Amino acid sequence: MFLTPLGILSNVILVPYMPIFSALTAPESWTELKDRIHQSLILSAMSMMPIGALMAVLALPAVRVVYQRGAFDSEASQLVASLLVVYAFGMFFYLGRDIFVRVFYAFEDGNVPLQISVLGLFFNAIFCFFFTKDLVHLV
Fold first, then answer.
1. Helical H runs in 58-73?
2. pLDDT tens digit string along 72-126?
3. Pair 117, 29: CB distance under 8 Å
4. Which of 27, 33, 43, 104 has the fewest CB neighbours in a 10 Å radius?
5. Which element (helix H / strand E) includes 105?
6. Greatest CA span in the chain, whole angstroms?
7. How far apart are the C-alpha atoms of 5 and 25, rounded to whole Å?
8. pTM attached to this predicted model
9. Are 52 and 1 in contact (CB under 8 A)?
10. How would DSSP label each residue in 72-86?
């Protein structure tokens, strides 16, 4: 539910910036590159924060309309809506990460985003191991 607005807006914001970032990779253009990175972060914040707030406010009604039927009761809707609120809060940070990944790609350096992603997967696995033991009784 949160990926649709995020995917649409990320393409609208990030695709036009990629050639700009690529054109500004020369050391003499780094000041302009920093300005464009700042501009893209501001643009993503100005677009994603209102959408995130709207998603947070409409989380429960949206989850009820889409999912609440059969075995998916109001308690399950409340749980999923609370997760959607957390995702709505993180949308700007997710898009900000994508901006910096595009900057590394503009410098033709795909190793740093890859290493950061692998490190993130490692921490995700560690956190899942430690924090989901209490959820075993729900299965």
1. 59-67
2. 888 888 988 998 898 888 888 888 999 999 999 999 999 999 999 999 999 999 9
3. no
4. 27
5. helix 74-106
6. 61
7. 30
8. 0.80
9. no
10. --HHHHHHHHHHHHH
